[in-house]
Amino acid sequence: MDAGADRAPLESALRKARWRILPLLALGYLAAYTDRVNISFAAESMNRDLHFSPHVYGLGAGLFFVSYALCEVPSNWLLLRFGARRWLARIMFTWGVLAMAMLFVHTRTSFYGMRLLLGIAEAGYFPGAAYYISIWFPARERARAMGFFYVSLPLASVMMGSVAGALLRLDGRLGLHGWQWLFLIEGVPAVLLSVAIWFTLAERPRAANWLRKDEREALELDIAEAYPPDHPSNRGDALRVVVRDPRVWMLGLCALCLLGAIYAVNFFLPEILRELTGATPGNVGYLIAISAATGAVGMIVYGIHSDRTHERRLHVIVPALLLALLMLIAGLHLRGWIAAAVLLVVMVVFYAMQAPWVAMFTELFRGEKAALAIATVNMLGIIGGFLGPYWMGWMRELTGGFAIGLGSLCVPWLVMAAGIAWVTRPRRQVAMESPVELIGAVEKSL
To answer: How confident is the model at residue 236 (pLDDT cuts 50, 70, 90)?
Structure first.
């Protein structure tokens, strides 16, 4: 039997896994991101109806990330205890219900409380999904798989930009404000997807009844070397290894800068674009949708280029430096359509860099250490999701505009570029041609 015939069951299993797993997880993250940031589209009318100041809105937007960050590692610890399929379904169901319940917000206290509860419910989905992908796809397939999963990030903005305007125009229907319709309708998909995940996914290839026996065996064998099954008794050791690794904390700092800077823009982008262009909320939504769609294409193309060149380092550092420059330009010239175009380009560059960025920190660890390391990095990053919107809201209230807040965001992008340069720096004791090989060598040492 030739090599092609030997690999036929494996290739068949991977093809089935791609079609069954990746679209479902991607739709889940699309729903998660939508429910996380849809208040940016609801902000203008909600703030007016509830008499929220920019400071109140910025604090409420950011509080989600406080509870999210605090629960990120515990959530993934429980994921390892109960299984990824069950825990991911639980996450989606609870956050979907709470996202719909946002329509009952009527005071700043209820606004703060619901945002905190939503963060608790959603904590763990992204690192849990990344870990789940890692136990289904071998290393040579993982960057592409992560790219097709994470492309839901810009697609969420496409959907929000396209749908938000229509939902906001339901203002007054059945006695509900437009922003209440936005929360109600956009929370439903998460609940439906939780049912699909529960009944469609399997914990590991060997438990997948939608694979033939030879396909299950071939896929388990292929991933066994990189992802051996960890026993519960080893989880404490895995966590200790993770928290003692300086790369985890540096990547966490990079994630904090990345998410802090982008959420500072994202939560206020519709309002900023309306001020700069005079466009209606619906047209602003379309502008954001076009930018996000371009970013989705850029994410796939840029990720493929990173894979083909076997290079991660510059694929992350160069966009970070470009984003620092763009934010400085926006801060110095926050007027008219030119500034609007700069901010829309910021979103495109941000989305494009995500594939090599996610591939970089998911390739550093293996087994259950992957779930805990990714959760720790994401936990630190999510803190930036609180700091960024709070900073922008405060600076808007202090200065009466967005220019200084936006211009100052060049700093976290510069810090991120420096952090990635340190994590991926060449090491004298290992002769390697690229950061991907560096990652492989470090992974073998864990």
So the answer is: low
245, 234 in Cβ contact below 8 A? no
- Whether residue 431 has pLDDT greater than 50: no
Phi–psi pair at 136, nearest 5 degrees: -115, -20
Residue in 275, 291, 420 with CA at minimum distance from that of residue 346: 291
356 and 308 Cβ atoms separated by less than 8 Å: no
Beta carbons of 64 and 116 less than 8 angstroms apart: yes
How do residues 66-118 score in pLDDT, each as one tens digit? 888 888 888 888 888 888 889 999 999 998 999 999 999 989 899 999 999 99
Per-residue model confidence as pLDDT tens digits over 353-397: 888 887 777 676 666 666 677 778 888 887 887 788 888 888 888
Tokens describing residue 417: 């570029």
- The first and second tokens of residue 356, run together, are 């090599």
Instruction: Report the distance separating Cα 441 and Cα 430, nearest Å.
Output: 8
Chain Cα centroid distance, residue 87 = 18
Residue 351 to residues 84, 150, 270, 385: CA-CA distances in angstroms? 26, 9, 17, 16
Range with the lowest mean pLDDT among 7-16, 230-239, 289-298, 437-446?
437-446
Nearby residues of 4 by Cβ (< 8 Å), 6 or more positions away: none
Instruction: Write the pLDDT tens digit of every residue in 281-319.
Output: 777 877 888 888 888 888 888 887 887 787 888 899 999
Looking at residue 225, its pLDDT comes to 54
| 56-61 long-range contacts, CB within 8 A, separation 24+ | 56/108, 56/111, 57/393, 58/267, 58/389, 58/390, 58/391, 58/392, 58/393, 58/394, 58/396, 59/112, 59/390, 59/393, 60/108, 60/111, 60/112, 60/115, 61/115, 61/267, 61/389, 61/390, 61/393
For residue 102 the two structure tokens come to 């946002």
Q: Which amino acid is at 142?
A: R
Question: Can you list the domains of the chain with their CATH numbers?
Answer: 8-202+214-223+242-445 (1.20.1250.20)
Secondary structure letter of residue 228 according to DSSP: P
Structure token pair of residue 82: 């109960």
Question: What are the Cα distances from residue 197, in Å, to 26, 192, 338?
Answer: 11, 9, 44
